């Protein structure tokens, strides 16, 4: 009865279009009250859901990314890449992918990267003959790399749920993130060559490239400082987030002088709103997961998964398919809290490495950000071109296909995820 109630309320509210955070919280609270499962624990779970040192990194990384966006550092990175590869076939599309990869190493958020990169690169792409829907699609799909390439909010939450080192997860995501980025860039090139999309009229001179490098160097150093500090053991991911805030403030206010005190106030407001939305989902998704565990839903579904096949690879592929489907309807944070508590006993049964699986899991969630009907990156990109979601989604299909190929590669080759953490001495399987 408890299982039927929580799932029925969940599905009903979801179909009615209620925001996912509210859906999770209401369905859990109703079930707890109806079956007297311990209403006094709701407050405890509410507090413990966010009273976590690793989760402190989320608002700081959000703030750092917002400051960098206000300082227009993405434009400086894009300008450098335009001068280097912008004139080749599909040059501006490839620039969009590469810029998204760099910006992802600053923001850690797919929609934020879509907005930042789209405002800079969609207009030049359209001006040079690219379809506006293709331009929006390439920005949306390449921006989903932001939650694979560290620092990543999704990795922070995965680490908090599973008890794995966030720093190790960050390092594990580097090679898979690059692999996914190269695959998206390859698809952008192939489509551009077929359609005759080109880049800039003139290749940048060595002098122009050097000037652009000088202007972009502070932006390029940001991921080096953040990840280098974690890699060298100088600071934890949470401490790295604080360093990122102070670094971004220093660059924006004293180096580029592109952010005023009024801008800083608005930046703080924007960051608080974004962080609040994330934490709202985190809290109520945590309560939902606790309730599902108490009434036995977690164990029931975990046993069903374990009994499907004795082969670990088959199980991983099935989970990939499940995540791709869920990604069409739910946001990444909600999926993490809904699915990971179920999969933890499954990982233990099949002896699957949790760091490797974390990269697989987050990569699948990243693809979901660019798949309709609830692809947040697609919505953001469609708004940027004043177009409809369906047209952007059609252009995104081939990019989603190539990213799915990348997901399969990462799922079959654990060394892509584990090589750097093991050789850096951060992890022992």
Describe this structure in words.
It is found in: Cell inner membrane. Residues 8-416 form the TRAP C4-dicarboxylate transport system permease DctM subunit domain. This protein has 429 residues and is mostly helical. It folds into 2 domains: 1-37, no CATH class; 38-423, no CATH class. Helices cover 78% and strands 0% of the residues. It contains 21 helices and no strands. The chain has helices at residues 2-15, 20-34, 40-50, 57-70, 73-85, 91-107, 110-127, 132-143, 153-162, 166-172, 174-195, 206-231, 237-255, 261-294, 297-308, 312-326, 332-350, 354-368, 376-384, 389-412, 415-423. Helix 16 (312-326) runs antiparallel to helix 20. The longest helix is centred in the middle third of the chain and has 34 residues, at 261-294. The two termini are 41 Å apart. The model has no long low-confidence stretch (mean pLDDT 84).
Secondary structure layout plus pairing:
Elements: H1 2-15, H2 20-34, H3 40-50, H4 57-70, H5 73-85, H6 91-107, H7 110-127, H8 132-143, H9 153-162, H10 166-172, H11 174-195, H12 206-231, H13 237-255, H14 261-294, H15 297-308, H16 312-326, H17 332-350, H18 354-368, H19 376-384, H20 389-412, H21 415-423
Keyword list:
TRAP_DctM, about 425 residues, cell membrane, mainly alpha
What's the gist of this structure?
78% of the residues lie in helices and 0% in strands. The protein has helices at 2-15, 20-34, 40-50, 57-70, 73-85, 91-107, 110-127, 132-143, 153-162, 166-172, 174-195, 206-231, 237-255, 261-294, 297-308, 312-326, 332-350, 354-368, 376-384, 389-412, 415-423.
């Amino acid at each position: 009865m408890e299982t039927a109630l929580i799932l029925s309320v969940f599905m009903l509210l979801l179909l009615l279009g209620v925001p996912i955070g509210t859906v999770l919280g209401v369905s859990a609270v109703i079930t707890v009250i109806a079956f007297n499962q311990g209403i006094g624990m709701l407050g405890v779970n509410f507090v413990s859901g966010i009273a976590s040192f690793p989760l402190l990194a989320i608002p700081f990384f959000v703030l750092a990314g917002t400051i960098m966006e206000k300082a227009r550092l993405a434009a400086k990175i894009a300008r450098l890449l335009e001068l280097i590869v912008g004139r080749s076939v599909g040059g501006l599309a490839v620039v969009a992918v590469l810029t998204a990869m760099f910006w992802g190493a600053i923001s850690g958020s797919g929609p934020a990267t879509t907005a930042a990169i789209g405002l800079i690169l969609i207009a030049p792409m359209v001006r040079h003959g690219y379809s506006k829907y293709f331009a929006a699609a390439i920005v949306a799909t390449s921006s989903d790399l932001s939650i694979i390439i560290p620092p990543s909010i999704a990795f922070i939450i995965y680490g908090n749920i599973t008890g794995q080192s966030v720093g190790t997860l960050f390092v594990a995501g580097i090679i898979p993130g690059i692999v996914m980025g190269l695959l998206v860039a390859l698809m952008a090139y192939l489509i551009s060559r077929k359609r005759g999309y080109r880049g800039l009229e003139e290749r940048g001179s060595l002098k122009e490239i050097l000037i652009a490098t000088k202007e972009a160097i502070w932006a390029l150093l940001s991921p080096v400082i953040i990840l280098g500090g974690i890699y060298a053991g100088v600071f934890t991911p949470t401490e790295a987030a604080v360093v990122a805030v102070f670094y971004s403030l220093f660059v924006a206010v004293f180096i580029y002088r592109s952010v005023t005190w009024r801008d800083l106030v608005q930046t703080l407001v924007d960051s608080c709103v974004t962080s609040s939305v994330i934490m709202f989902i985190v809290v109520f998704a945590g309560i939902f997961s606790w309730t599902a565990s108490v009434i036995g839903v977690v164990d029931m579904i975990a046993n069903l998964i374990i009994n499907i096949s004795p082969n670990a690879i088959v199980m991983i592929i099935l989970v990939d398919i499940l995540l791709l489907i869920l990604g069409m309807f739910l946001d990444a944070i909600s999926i993490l809290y809904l699915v990971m508590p179920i999969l933890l006993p499954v990982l233990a049964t099949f002896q699957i490495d949790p760091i490797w699986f974390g990269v697989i899991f987050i990569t699948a969630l990243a693809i979901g950000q660019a798949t309709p009907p609830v692809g947040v990156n697609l919505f953001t990109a469609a708004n940027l071109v004043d177009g409809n979601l369906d047209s952007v989604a059609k252009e995104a299909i081939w990019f989603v296909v190539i990213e799915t190929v990348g997901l399969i590669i990462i799922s079959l080759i654990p060394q892509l995820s584990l090589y750097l953490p093991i050789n850096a001495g951060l992890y022992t399987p």
